[in-house]
Design goal:
The protein is an alpha+beta fold. The protein has a domain of about 120 residues: Chorismate lyase-like (Chorismate lyase), CATH 3.40.1410. About 30% of the residues lie in helices and about 25% in strands. It has six helices and six strands. Strands 1-2-3-6-5-4 form a six-stranded antiparallel sheet, covered by helices on one side.
């Protein structure tokens, strides 16, 4: 990565941390985890960030992230429904996937989403393909609201997680469409 790009990513990470009230580590030279944090902070979509990261690290050419189903369903908690601004009867979609690039699992992600706020075509793609959520809903122009981030595993993440994020994706008008827990793997920073 060029020094200018590293500085830009560090500045973006610091600005994101300040704006969101979150703790983002500004990368130091050779600090792969810090560099990953900066790339993630510079994108609204984790999918787009991981594709940039995959290209930067030369994990694959072309750098394309795929969502491999990871199985199991976790029902949304009352707090999750409140975050999504849904009552207890509203349908909630769920995907548990492993996001990979070049055969390398970069993230284990839980995603609760609001089908009623997506198009019928988007819901169909989410239910029937391995296309990452961020790529499917990109036409909606969503923005990412980071709720929490930490190095190591957060609740719901595998023990070997090196970085955890919890975020809401919101439509331009403010309605939430998704609540995600992203558990980044050691393979992402090797």
């Amino acid at each position: 990565m060029s020094p200018l790009r590293t500085l830009r990513n560090a500045a973006l990470a610091a600005a994101a941390a300040t704006a969101l009230g979150a703790c983002v580590t500004v990368p130091q030279a050779g600090n792969s985890l810090g560099e990953l944090e900066a790339v993630l902070a510079s994108h609204e979509s984790a999918t787009a960030a991981l594709e940039e990261w995959c290209a930067m690290r030369r994990f694959a050419d072309p750098a394309r992230v795929v969502a491999e189903p990871a199985g199991g369903r976790i029902e949304p908690s009352a707090q999750s429904r409140a975050s999504l601004e849904l009552n207890e009867d509203a349908p909630v979609g769920y995907r548990h996937v492993r996001l990979s690039c070049g055969g390398r699992v970069l993230s284990d992600a839980h995603n609760w989403y609001v089908p009623a706020r997506l198009t019928a075509e988007m819901n169909h793609v989410l239910e029937t393909t391995r296309t990452p959520f961020g790529r499917v809903v990109m036409p909606l122009g969503f923005r990412r609201e980071r709720l929490a981030g930490q190095r190591g595993p957060a609740e719901g993440c595998p023990e070997d997680t090196v970085l955890s994020h919890r975020a809401l994706l919101r439509l331009p008008g403010g309605d939430p469409i998704s609540l995600v827990i992203e558990c980044y793997t050691a393979a992402a920073v090797e």
